[in-house]
Amino acid sequence: MxxxxxxxxxxxxxxxxxxxxxxxxxxPIRRDILHLCVVHHLDCxxxxxxxxxxxxxxxGSGRKIRPQKGSGRARLGDAQSPMLRGGGVAFGPxxxxxxxxxxxxxxxxxxxxxxxxxxxxxxxxxxxSLEWPGYKTRDLQSRIEELGWWRTLFVTxxxxxxxxxxxxxxxxxxxxxxxxxxxxxxxxxxxPRLVLDLAAVEWFERALGKPQVNPxxxxx
Length: 220
Fold this sequence. Notes:
Elements: H1 22-25, H2 31-45, H3 104-120, E1 124-127, H4 137-147, E2 152-156, H5 163-168, E3 175-179, H6 185-190, E4 193-197, H7 198-208
Helix pairs in contact: 2-3
């Protein structure tokens, strides 16, 4: 376990170990599940606001351009025909919802697979807390450079990101913060490194782990 805050002289946080639940952080890697979750997330992010006008929506007169016969040229109707410049668009896009549905259990499995992949790639770290003293970006930047934690996503299990870390990291381009409840599979895969605090580890184990079934007492 590492430490975001510089430890004391006699303390070595690397000697502390965190036991991770194998149900959450040692799941078999399923690339098909990850693909389903990523496509589902990107589909839900689409605006679907593209809009074109059909020949019935284009402004203009409905008068026939020229007689049907006798001119020797092609047959034409009104000026809003899709064949003419300035006319309507045939089979053009209309506003629609691109969101797809995915079962909740598949999304939960995708999160377990994403966290397990980070552990297998040795790109997941755990700290005791994400509390950061002060609000200076310079101090946090020097500490991140010391740890080599650029391009890192800090995940907390609290309801809100600690204010000190949130304000100090807001100007760092390759560092971001998020709560465990807001983390999704796409974000977990996009960032090269994840750093969780102990509260986030407990949150994931409670939300994604197997439910504990108490043994029943049978009276024989």
